[in-house]
Amino acid sequence: MIRRFASITALSFLLAACSSGPVRRVSEPTASLQQLTVRSDGQWDVQLRLQNYSSIAMRFDKASLDIRFDNGPAAKLEVQPGLDIGPESADVVNAILTPLPSGRARIASALADGRGLAYTLSGSLAATPQDGKQKSWDIKRESALSPVPGLPGALR
């Protein structure tokens, strides 16, 4: 009798666990510079990569990021991509920026010397999870860009 009761109870718990559906996990997104190209007018074409680590789709509403090269201010990036990115996926947003004089000088020096450049992105990303409310995340990302062979003025 006890064995039968235990078996029925275990089966009930197993069936209940199966009916809950997929887990909806919302994780902190990230942003990084995929490519930066210096234009002939001195402005920058920036490809900002937005990464969604959540198990559900998210709509990326706004990015407000400071770009620093070797810990010196370089530019302010403000975009409102309105971009839906699927679960555990990434996409790229293109923007044109006017750099600060110190950023322009630092990137010109790196390109002239054929060297890479360390950068930091800091600021915030606002995104809305599928069927959820908009949330803002503080972002701080450190990485580096290197000159792209065959593409003058471009770093990846």
Automatic annotation (TrEMBL):
Compositionally biased spans, kind Basic and acidic residues: 132-143
Region (Disordered) location: 130-156
Name the UniProt record assigns to this protein: Late embryogenesis abundant protein
Source organism of this protein record: Thermomonas beijingensis
